[in-house]
Amino acid sequence: MAISQKVSGFMEKSSWIRKMFEEGIRLKQEFGEENVFDLSLGNPVMEPPEEVRKALVDCARDESSGLHRYMPNAGFADVRAVIAESLSPECNVELSANDVVMICGAAGGLNITLKTLLDPDDEVIIFAPYFVEYLFYADNHGGKAVAVPTLDDFRLDFSALKSALNEKTKAVIINSPNNPTGVVYSRKELQELADVLKAHSARLGKPLYLISDDPYKKIVFDGVEAPNIMEFYPNSIYITSHSKDIALPGERIGFVAVHPQCESAESLMAGLIFSNRVLGFVNAPALIQRVVKQVQSVTVDVEQYRRKRDYLYKELTRIGYEVVKPQGAFYFFPKSPILDEVEFAKRLADKKVLVVPGRGFGQPGYFRVSYCFPDSVIEGAIAGFEQAYEECKDKPKES
Known about the structure:
The chain is of the alpha/beta class. It has helices at 5-13, 15-31, 50-61, 77-91, 105-117, 133-140, 158-164, 187-204, 265-278, 286-293, 302-319, 341-350, 375-392, and strands spanning 37-38, 100-103, 123-128, 144-149, 169-174, 209-213, 236-241, 254-258, 331-332, 353-354, 356-357, 367-370. The longest helix is centred in the middle third of the chain and has 18 residues, at 187-204. The protein is globular, with a radius of gyration of 21 Å.
């Protein structure tokens, strides 16, 4: 075999979204794009806000010298200063440019963070259902991702977390609003999480890091609060991108912020900057750094996502699906009406509706639906959801 057995095995684990994407291409070629309702990808069709477009044009037209040269690996100091000033009120912590590293998307941020933190065989706790790439990011840097189950409503299960914590645990990753469930962790949950991690750190006599992967943080509904972990836990690392909040996934821009009271914060920041360089990112793209400097207060029209969520929730529950109503992001994670959600996803594909089986997120028996698509795609999928459910609703769960 030309590629390593490890990569081959990882490709199989991560293949569910890719498989559905490829199935979507096949179905669209056979039946026409307008007749296929692909709800599998989290690739928002919403365009960047006008303020972002204007900032991009203005930055591209700026003829000042040196704007496209190499810079410090952490990114432009003035950009980092603006981000620190914008973020400080949210987390009730006074941040400076020296607490921020500009990154190539949240994926880049997670990788430089885990490279900086992990020694061989260190463990990183993640909560199921999870973003599958966490498994591979931890392995990239010699660590191991350990999945901890959540409660039936996808809230944090602190009993399960306490059972999973051990002397090898180096970090815990949370994602709120969550992909794939849309759940937002409350202030009470984050405080309890911080208390658990503080107690474990005290027992071990070394810091346990809390990493918050929050690219959906500004996409929340119904007045729900999405608190920042820095308010609760000093040994915290906040990672986000502008892929979702201003619809720039292809521009690969975001930042990592380290709590200034984090243990060995100066060494941690130095490690992040070093890792940014040696992992090959070198620095985040210069042009888009200067753009996001100007639009830290800008967000896509979240009301559009809220309206799509309400419509799809009404229809799915009317049909009979069991589903937790999302509080943020742009996903549903319904329970499959039959135990084998892969088989159910195939039934939906027969109706030309594409979703992702839950085992792709470490949670068999469920499936993910993305609703970051035009209304016509979401509305067109309803008939298929209803037909597939009717075919399966009376079948025993163990079938």
